[in-house]
Every structure is written in C-alpha cells, then in structure tokens.
Amino acid sequence: MKRFSFHKGTVFILLGILCLFASGLRHSELIDQRKEYNLQHVPPEKTTPLVTLTTVAFGGFRGLVADALWVRASKMQESGDYFEMVQLANWITQLEPRVPEVWSFQAWNLAYNISVLFPDEEDRWRWVSHGIDLLTKEGLLHNPNSSDLHWDIGWMYQHKIGMEFDLAHLYYKQRLAEGMEKVLPTGTLPLQPLSIEAERILSSQFSLETSVMRQLENSFGPLDWRLPATHSLYWSTKGLSYPTSDFGGKKLTRMKFQSLSVLMQNGNLLHDTETGYMMTLPRKDLIPVINQEYAQHLEGKPENSYLVKSYENFLYQALVLYAESGQLSDALELYTGLAALDETLQPGRVNFQVFVQNLLTQPPETLRRSQAMTRIVTLLQKSKDPEISEVRSRGIAQMARQTHRLYQESRQTEDHLKRTGLPPFEWMMGNL
Amino acid sequence: MKTTFTIFKLSLRTILRERVAVSMLGLLVLVLVLLPSGLQGDGTVQGAIQMQVRYSLGFSFALLAGMTLWVSCASVSGDLTSKRLQMVLTKPVSRMSVWFGKWLSVVTVVSLLGLLCGGVTLFRIHQIISAAEMEPSERSLLQTQVLTARKPLDVPPMDLSEEAKQLFIKQQAAGALPPQANMEDLLPKIERYLQVERFAVDKESASSWTLPLPTPPQPGEEFQLFYHYDGLAMGSTQVNGEWVISDPDGESFFRFPVQQSPQGGHALPFTVPKEMAGATSLDLTFRNLAPEGSKIFFQTDQGIRLFHQGGSFSLNLFRSVFLFCGLLSILAAIGVSAGSMFSLPVACYSTMVVLVLQAFSGIVSEVVEQGFPARPEDVSSVVHLFTQARFILFQGILILIQPMQMESPLGRVAEGVLIPSSEVFAVLSLRFLPIIGVAALIGIFFFSKREVGDAS
Q: In b/e form, how buried is each residue of A300-335, taking b as 16+ CB within 10 angstroms?
C-alpha cells in the first residue's frame, strides 16, 4: 500500500512539473497576445517591483486595498497631514497602474490642491514637482500611450507654471529655468549632439527625449527649453502622436497652438541667475510658421472649426506684436485676415489705422503681465535701434519707463504685485 | 514557578525552531530594511521621520501581530497535534504552569522583536537626520516640534447638554423645528453644533479659551501654542488674525499675527517671561481680523493646545513600543487560550477576529458615534430592525474592544507629542492586564477540562 502511494505521489509530482513546463511554453505566446491586444503596455521586466508585487500578491483584493488607501488619503488631506500624501498617491496609482484617470487625479491633487496650502514658495514648488514627477516618471511608464496623461503634464506646465494664477508662479518659472540651465546653459539645444550625461539628465529629470525636442526645433526653430510653454508644446505634440479620442485630440491640438502663441509673445528668456530676475522677449519669427500651421489645420477641414477662435486670437496677438514694433505692413496683412473672420472688424486701411491706434493707446494698467512685458520689451528694443535719432530713442525709452511705472502702480495689493509684477525697469533696460 | 520556567524555556526553543516563526522573522527583517528605503515622504526631513515612525514601525508591528497570532495558537494546539505536550503532561505539571509558560515565551519573543524594531527605527531616524542638509532654523524646528516629546495641555471639556436643551426649547418655541422633532434624537446634534461653535471665531470678532496649568510655569520655560484648523469647514480663504496669550485678568504676554492657509496644524513657540511665572491658568484668544474673510474653525478635538517640554523622543518611541507590546501580550493570551481549546486553524481564525476588530476599531467607533439610527420614512420596519440589530452588534463589539483602544501611539510619537509613563503604566496594568487575566482564566479552565493524555 505504501509503495503504491509513493509511486502515485511521484506520478503526480511529475505530472505537476509537466504542467508547469507546458504552461511555461505558452508564456511567451501570451505576452505577445498581451502586446497585440494592447492589454499591457509595459513589459513585466520594465515595470516597478511594487506594481508586480501588488498586482500578483493582492490579486482580487487589490481593489479593496486601493479603497482603503483612498479613504486614508482623504482623511489625511482633510486633517491637513500631508507627509504621507506622496506615498499614498504612489501606492494608490501602483495598485491601479493602468487607469490613467487615477494618475491624473493623484497628480492634480498633489500639484494643485496641496501645493496652494503652503505659504512658502519652496514648499509649493516641491508639491508641484511631486505632481509632475508622478505623471512623467511613473504614470507614463505604465501608460505610455495615454494621450490624456500627456495633456495633463502639458497642462501643469502651461497653466500651473506658465500662467499667473498661482502666487508662486514666478518662483516655479525660476526653478524650471535653473533646472534646465544645468543641462542647456543657454536654454536651447546645441547644434552638436548632447553629451550622454546631459541626455541622461533630460530624460531622468524632465522625461524629455532629445529626438522629439529636435523634431520640434526643426519645425519651429530654436526653442527656449527653460520656458514652461516649450514644455507644454513638447507634451502636447508628443501626446498627439498617440491615438486619442476626438475630444482628447482637440484638447491637445488647442494646447499645442496656445503654447505656440505664448512662445511667439514670450519665446526668448533672459534670466539673471544672480538676482533671479527674468524677462521674456517676443519671437516674431514664429508668426509665419504658426500661421502656416493654422492654415494646414483649417483649410478644407471643417472638422477643425473649433480652432477658428484660437486662430482669431493668434492673429490678434501677432498683429499687436507687429504693430508695437512698427511693422505696419505685416500688421495690415494680419488685420485683413482677422477682419475676414471677425464680423465686428471692418476691412480697409483706415479701419486698420484706427484699430492699431486703439491697440497702442491701451492703458498699461489694463494689460496682462505678459502683454505689459511684451510692450515694454518692444519699446526698449525700438529705442536701441541704431537707425533712429538719439532724441527719439530717449523718447521711446521714456515711454517704456512710463508703461512700466503705470503697470506696476496699478497692482492693487502686495500679493498682486508679487504675482503679476515686473522686474525693475533699470534691470530690463540694462539687459536688453 | 520552576515548572513554569521550564515550560517557558522549552516553548522558547520550540518557537525559535518553528519554520513559520523563522519566515515571519525574515519578513520582519525585510520590512525593517527594505521598506524604509522605498518610503516616499513629502521631501522634507520632518516627513521622512514621520513616515519612518508611522509606516516602518507600524508595518513591523502588524507583522509581529501576525506572528504572535500564529505562534501563540500553535504553542498549545500545535504541541498537542505533534504529541509533544502529551509527553510534558505525563509529568507533575499543572495546566496553569503550561499556559503561563507558553504565554510568557510568546510574549518574550515578540516583545524582544518589538524592542528591536523600535531600535532599528531610531537608528534609521538618526541616519536621516545625519544625512540631511538643513538650515539652522529648520533643524531647530525639527528639534522642537518633531524630535521631542511635548506634554500637551488641552482646553477642558465642557458639558453642553443643558445649553443644548435650552437651545432646543428656544428653537421649538420659535417654530424653527418641525413639530415631530424629538429632543432625544436632536440633542446630540445640537451639542455637536455647540461644540463646533465653541471652537469657531466669527469674522471681525474674537474667541477665548482658558487653559488651567497643572504646574505654574517657570521663567525661561519653553512653551508652544498649537492650533489646528478645521480645513474642511473653511475652504481655502486665507486666515488673517492674531493670537493673544494673556492671564485671566487680561494682561497679555504675547501677540502672534497670523496670515496663512486654513489647513493643518501650526505651533507658535514662546518662552515664559517673568510676569507669567506662577500663573495657574492662561487665556488663549484668537482675533479674526479679516473683514472680507470667513469664519474660522478650529478642530474641536485637540484643535487648540499648549505644549511644553515633556521628555526625549527616543524614550517616547519606546513607550509606544511598550504599549504595542502590551497589545501583543493580549493577542498572545487570546491565542494561547484559543489554542488550548481548539485545533490550530480554528484557534487562528478566532484570534484573528480579535486582531481584525482591534485594527478596525476606529470604524466601529465611528458607526457607534453616529448614534442610534432613526427610521427614515421610506424604510420598512424589517429593514430598520436589521439596522438596529447591526447597530447593537457594533455597540457590543465596541464595549468588548474598547479596553484595547489606544490614542494612536505612533501618531503621537511622529508628531512629537508625549506619551506619559503614567499612561503606559495605567494602560498596561489597569486595562491590558485584566484582559490577559480573563483570557488566562478562560484558557486555563478549558485547558484543564480538555483530555489530552488519553491513548488517542
């Protein structure tokens, strides 16, 4: 009886080994099928150990654990205990790694909801970085084809860092510029290939691929990578290379054109590392390029009519740039295009002159920070034109100073001045 | 006593030989070594230390609880299955000695491991601090608010029941309540409302709280005024106000202007001046200065406190370890008793129920705190009966597990709040020891009734 049991046991063990072997043979085929049906974008060897552990070890209980962590994260946030938030966000996303919405929500929570609760700029920047890093370093690893995550990253650069809503936006811009200057001292990609170390930093710290960066520079000329708008252009363009929903595609396209418009107005950065002052200069050379890009998207493509308003805005901003720098024939050309789209504008040279006059006499206190910066910078550039007389040059510089003063004085509170104020006029004049 | 010690030695040897115990030990080492390196704080030293205490030590104790559960259940039922215990019981050994010997051995092992976990955590914290580059102000903040054990003084609780009754009567008379409103149902809610109001400050107004001082402060003594906003109630409007610390006669000692987000806890340190020395109580007043701002709410539970230096961080950490070791001792007692009554799987499951209930005691408390459920109009009486039965069950569970509930020892250590030795002593001797005693009596009783020396 015992001998029989022993034999039976041996047979079962051998059978078990055989089954294991047979299932092992099917493993590579299954991995291929996963890739084919887009079930797992990340090969197991490339994913993080925690994701592998949680997906395998927790099995069906993964959802329950994730729920418990969501509850804890909410409670921690309600009570103002933020120390654990990064870790909890990390665990929650690792438990649901292939749901882009989870990454989106957690990153948004860190970069937006938590960051604004800190009065200190450095603290705020840390939380904004946590949010961006969660998406670029982890979210995209598990969802490399998610155009929505690309949009989220682009939005953080475009809105959180690039716009003026956050009290610490100037500090964010400064930190971004400082970070990029460590790899690209002038802000732009050099013509010769980057060193391996520089490539590594760009990839590990900013998740930027130099091939995509170069591709963008081929289309739009040298870009200043210290500017948030360049990053939002990068992420929107990259996101568009993946399959998107109709709405997702529109969001990314809008972001791409908005970023280009911002670069046209403020595409060159002057950064004083000692004082931390920053000044942006317009890039008028981008106007024809963007115009052409719009034409490609709009001509004969009624499905892209959602871009018409954005195109009108672009034409208006480009027109302002030309008008302020005295390129009136170029401005007239754009005005003609704008009048064809905007029914409230009348075509014709006389109407154009009235329009430009209104534009240029717009009081400085009604301008946005970027508009005021553009006007002052354009005036200062004009004042340094060697072809104009000294008296005229002094007059234009005086106008720039006046614009600066009126703009600064119109800031209502200290916080308002801190958020939307300009660098000192003397510094701006001395550094152009 | 001698036999108990012999059983203790024998059991200790068995535990160390147990494969499960060894693998748990391996896991513990992994938790202590690998987990801390994978933990992500918020990027600050303070955050890293909090994560070490809450997670690294917390996970270690969760693992130790699992280990205690298994080893304690197996110490009797496992020995019975393997017939080792039958050999022992042929000798003149009382069942009580066996029970205590087994329990002591489990408690010794897990307590030593608990202390080891505490030591390793302390070492990791020391490493974090040495490696961190901090400004002197940041280091000082860390020393005074995290790496310390501050003794809290809380706003004394107030009986608001009479005030709540008066408010109910007043509102009813004014016709502000529906005619069918029941005083018993509404009183807890009105009391809660009054409690919230007690810790709120209207715009352009001030609220004061009096804190009695158990010992008069000495000149030069360091204090901290701690306040915690109820962020949920306030949104994100910036707070613009002023804290005033004064004596009950109105003589103010300190004024602290405050401009910040209404989130989280904040501490304002101050040194006791000569004029404050000998005071028996202090008035803490908050003036809400923002005319355009909103009403300010502080947390009703420990939302306003005074801290003064109570002791060292390391000792505080070990006091929390002692409290956890106490909990593990209860688990060991229940495990050994369950093992004395049931087979290993049944003993493990029944002990696990206690462990799970303890772990989720917070949820049970929350359910009970919500009060007895009133029957909504659209719910049938049968369904309502089930709801009530469930509530009574939760109440019963809470009564059973309440003696094992503790006021978040790891949370307090992480926030630099003192766990007094007197509390450790009281919890261990007055709450945990009686539970262990009851578990021991039940276990020994059933163990003595159990026939283990028969021929089977």
A: eeeebeebeebbeebbbbbbbbbbbbebeebbbbbb
